[in-house]
Each structure stands twice: as structure tokens, then as C-alpha cells.
Amino acid sequence: SAEELLQKGKQRGLDPKSGAESFRPPPEVEAYFAELDRVGRAAAVTTDWWQRLLREDCRQGGGWVRDWPVHAKHPEVTEGYVHRDIAPLHYVMGRLSPMYIERAFSKDFKRATWAVYFGPYCSNGDQQIGVGNGGAISAVLDLVTANLATLHVRGKTPTASLAVKMLRPALPMPGLFRVDAWVEKVEGNKIYLGGSFGDGAGKVFDTCEAVLGIPTPQGKEGGQNRSKL
């Protein structure tokens, strides 16, 4: 069950050598990121395109689901997902992530839209805040395409390649950005996705093309029997 998977993950986090609890930051650091999340949530609440998606597409009976599954094997369970807690050591969405993320996906598992707040440490500035850093943007595009692919096939989908086109500077910073991903096709043991990073008002700053693998269990041929998480 989803609850059993969550409990198993928490137990792994208690490992004294590699578990997340062994690397918990000081309270002052956690307080900083709690404030970042507060600012990010406030930005999301006042962003028209995101609130419209939640109100119109994620309503009861709509074609989208707010939040994100706690596990790809249980896409129907989203209530237990808490930002930073599900994957505390993750580079992009973990405890020390310099961004705040809210997520939604279509019920057919073919599209995802995220509202991502870039804090000041997501910029390319030195002594002053610059534009959105290309590495931070690429990391988000990598994560959204990988997450959607995993959800689409209900199994592991390691990234084989990610090509990002940086079209124009991402502004304003800090700020809330719209991140979209969509499944383009599945061929054999590969899944192809596209993605974009923009302001939600029609301006696209970056796009990507991602190719991910669909591992075949040992002893199986073809792409029909896919490995599970």
C-alpha cells in the first residue's frame, strides 16, 4: 500500500550512515527554508494562471489532480505529499532546495504543470540578484520530465538525455515561474517528453527535449513488461 511505502521510506531515512536524518541541517537553516516556502506559497496564491488551473482543471470531476503522488505505483494517493519531506535529500526538491514547488498533473498522466518559486539563490548573480540561473532551470526541467515519465509508465524511467534551449533571460527574480511537461511518444524502451519554463502569461524562457529509458525486467523481451519502483 502507499502507507507501507511511506513508512518504508521513513525507515530508510533513519539509517545512521546514509539516511536523511543523519544530515538534518541546524534549526536556523530549516527556519530559512520555511520562510522561503511561506513566500513561495504566498506568490502561488496570488498568481492568476496557477489559481485558474487549480480552480478549473483540478476541481472535482476535472481532468487534473492537484499535488503529486507519494509514489508512482499509487498515483491516486496525493494527500501525503509534503514539499521537502518526501525526498529530503533530493537536490531539487529536498530540504535545502532554493526553490518552492507546487505541482499538478493530468489524470491521463500525459501532462504536468508546476508552479515553481525561484528564491534569490536560484539566480546567476554574484553580489546582486541576476536572472534565473540556467543550471537551476535545467534541474527543474530534468525533474519534471523524469517525474512525469515515471508516472506515465508506472515504473522507473532513468534519464538518457536532456537537451535544454535557453531562449531568453528568466525574470523577474525572485519570482514564480510556470513549468510544463508533456509526453510526446513512447517507442520500445524509450519515452520522449517535451518541457517548457515560462512566466505563465505566454512568455517562454526555456524549452527542453528529454529521452528516458524504460528498463525491461531481466528475462523479459520488448517494452511491455516494465520494471516497477
What structural category arises from helix and sheet content?
alpha+beta
Summarize the helix and strand pattern as letters: HHHEEEHEEEE
Shape summary? globular
Number of helices in the DSSP assignment: 4
Give the total of beta strands.
Answer: 7
Supply database-style keywords.
single chain; 229 residues; alpha+beta; 4 helices; 7 strands; disordered C terminus
Model description:
The protein has 229 residues and is of the alpha+beta class. The protein has helices at residues 2-13, 27-45, 48-57, 134-153; strands spanning 64-66, 99-106, 111-118, 159-166, 175-187, 190-198, 204-213. The chain has a 7-stranded antiparallel beta sheet with strand order 1-2-3-5-6-7-4, with helices on both faces. Strand 2 and strand 3 (111-118) form a beta hairpin. The protein starts with a helix and ends in a 16-residue tail after the last strand. Mean pLDDT is 90; it is low at 222-229.
Question: What's a concise summary of this model?
Answer:
This protein is an alpha+beta fold. It is built from 4 helices and 7 strands, in the order αααβββαββββ.
Topology:
Layout: H1 2-13, H2 27-45, H3 48-57, E1 64-66, E2 99-106, E3 111-118, H4 134-153, E4 159-166, E5 175-187, E6 190-198, E7 204-213
